[in-house]
Amino acid sequence: MRIAFLGLGAIGRPMAARLAGLHQLTVWNRTADRARTFAAEHGAQAAGSPREAASSAEVVITCLPTSQDVEGLLDGPDGLEAGLSRGALFLDCTSGDATTSRRIAARLAGKGVAFADAPVSGGTNGAAAGTLTVMVGGDAETFERAVPVLQAFGKRISHLGPLGSGDAMKAVNNTLLAVNILSLGESLTALVKAGVNPRVAVETLNASSGRSFVSEGLVPDRVLTGAWPTTFRLALLDKDVGICLGMLAELGLPAPLLNKAGELLHEARATLGEEADYLGPIRLQEKRAGVEVRG
Ligand code: NDP
Question: Is 2-162 assigned to CATH 3.40.50.720?
Answer without folding.
Answer: yes
